[in-house]
Amino acid sequence: MQYVRMPIEIEAPEQLGYHTIDCNLTESSYTDFKFGELGLNLDDLILAYIDHVGHPGLRKLLSADTGGKIGPDRILLTAGAATALFIISTSLLDRGDEMVVVRPNYGTNLETPRAIGAVVKIVDLHYENSWKIDPESVMRVVTSKTKFVSITVPHNPTGTMMSLESLQAIVKATGELGIPLLVDETYREMAFCLGGALPYAATLGDHVISVSSFSKTFGLPGIRLGWLMTQNAKLFEKFFAGKEQIQICNSALDEEIGFQFYQKRAQFLPRILENLKRRHDMVSTWMTAHPYLEWTKPTGGCVGFPRFKNANFNTEKFYSTLNEEFKTHVGPGHWFEQPKRYFRLGYGWPDDVQLKRGLANIDAAIQKVHK
Question: Global pTM?
Answer without folding.
Answer: 0.94
